[in-house]
Write a structure and sequence with these properties.
heterodimer, A: about 350 residues, seven-stranded mixed sheet, about 35% helix, B: about 100 residues, alpha+beta, four-stranded mixed sheet
């Protein structure tokens, strides 16, 4: 038995892995950083991959089952991840594999409609995250999750509305670094802007605000609504762990007239969160001269070089950042990309 | 020895043990073993003794044992500790014949 890394730039080897996956109706995920295969007599008996610190694509051939190849694969993936400096490792899998991850010492965080389970290796991972979020007592506690790529007056308006309607507001900034504006920049701007409200607390979303960008799809059928499945997972983690810890009873979202994915996300939140006694408050978007203020509009203006015109659309902290030298790189990236994010 | 990052050693193979060491403010030991009922106490004693020998007073040690013998557990724990401390200050006689 031999464990080997599959070099992703060797098309023939990658094709062998794709063929292996096809036998299980699985697809090779596009964003894997590396793939490990276990060989028995030069034949692939099992495969597993990692994207960042998220394990994906673990599959073992039936004729080799019973030899704990799964344990071998997982040990190798977790050891490599830890050696890369990740303090924790996550895994998405179809619920039929739940028992294997549990036997490998993973903790199951949540599942989504019986289609996807999310696991973490560090059994105290989410507990450590929760202990970094200090509950603040109040009669009515609200929360919102923002990407703020970059923060606009629309976001600020949502925060202001929540701040006026609630005793305490917790704002979570998505920590995923897959957006044009870096996570730490987005967080800093939100924190600076929210400082004007004395009942608003800003937090990092960390790995517990599931982002659709890392969400795997390789084991879902074409007919499955992937966005809805990951939204349900994300909403359930929020409702199950974060809301009770902070006493959150209301989740604020901005109405979404422009982006169908976000609009569907809001609808799913409204279906899932009441189960956790959290009410969803949809707030109409702030407009500037009949135009809805959104981050994608702001990025469009940046693309067109109309940064001075942004003063009306973005809070001071965003404008200051865009006018600073540090923003040169991001502005270049925005100009070159036409991505949704 | 000061623990500065998370590190692992070992595997989940039968007769092996996967040891994970995390940075922490005090000493925390978590043990899960396929032979917990019979040897749980012995494993804990060995982990505590090894931590003391290595001069570690603050760490979170997670042991996932699949039936490893004592010397295996000690070796894996020591490897994880050295990795977590980013140290190569090996003194091969440290443990001594026991």
């Amino acid at each position: 038995m031999e464990i080997r890394e599959i070099y992703l730039n060797l098309k023939r080897d990658v094709q062998k892995v794709s063929d292996f996956y096809a036998r299980f109706n699985l697809r090779l995920e596009g964003d894997v950083d590396y793939l490990i295969a276990v060989y028995e007599n030069d034949v692939i008996a099992g495969v597993g991959g990692c994207a960042g610190n998220v394990i994906k694509g673990v599959a073992v051939d039936e004729s080799f089952r019973g030899a704990n190849l799964f344990g071998t694969l997982i040990s190798e993936l977790v050891s490599r991840n830890t050696a890369c400096g990740y303090g924790n490792t996550f895994a998405f899998t179809g619920p039929c594999n739940d028992k294997y991850f549990l036997a490998s010492g993973f903790r199951k965080l949540e599942d989504s409609s019986g289609k996807v389970s999310l696991f973490e290796k560090d059994k105290k991972g989410i507990d450590k995250y929760l202990s970094s979020l200090k509950p603040v007592p109040g009669e009515r506690v609200a929360a919102m999750v923002v990407n703020a790529n970059p923060m606009t007056r629309g976001h600020e308006y949502l925060v202001r509305t929540a701040s006026e309607e609630n005793s305490v507001v917790h704002v979570f900034v998505v920590s995923e670094d897959r957006s044009l504006f870096a996570a730490d920049v987005r967080y800093q701007i939100v924190a600076q802007t929210c400082a004007q409200f004395d009942n608003v607390y800003v937090h990092h979303g960390a790995e517990y605000m599931v982002s659709g960008m890392t969400f795997p799809t390789y084991f879902l059928k074409d007919s499955d609504d992937i966005n809805q499945i990951y939204t349900i997972l994300d909403a359930r983690i929020f409702g199950h762990y974060i809301a009770p810890h902070l006493g959150i009873t209301h989740r604020y979202v901005g109405e979404e007239p422009l982006d169908p994915v976000t609009a569907a996300y809001n609808r799913t939140l409204q279906q899932v969160l009441p189960e956790f006694d959290v009410e969803v408050c949809v707030i109409a978007r702030k407009k500037y001269r009949d135009e809805v203020i959104s981050a994608s509009r702001v990025r469009q203006y940046i693309r067109e070089g109309r940064i001075e015109e942004l003063e009306a659309f973005v809070p001071q902290a965003t404008y200051d950042f865009l006018s600073s030298d540090d923003a040169a790189e991001v502005i270049a990236k925005v100009r070159q990309s036409d991505s949704r994010h | 020895m000061e623990i500065i990052k998370t590190a692992t050693a070992g595997s989940l193979e039968s007769s092996d043990v996967l040891v994970t060491v995390h940075k922490a403010d005090d000493l925390e030991i978590e043990i899960d073993s396929t032979v917990m009922a019979q040897f749980g106490r012995q494993i804990k004693n060995l982990v505590e003794a090894t931590l003391e020998q290595m001069g570690v007073s603050a760490a979170r040690v997670v042991v996932e044992d699949k039936g490893a013998l004592d010397f295996i557990l000690k070796a894996r724990l020591e490897a994880a500790l050295f990795r977590a401390a980013e140290s190569t200050d090996y003194s091969w006689n440290r443990g001594g014949a026991s």
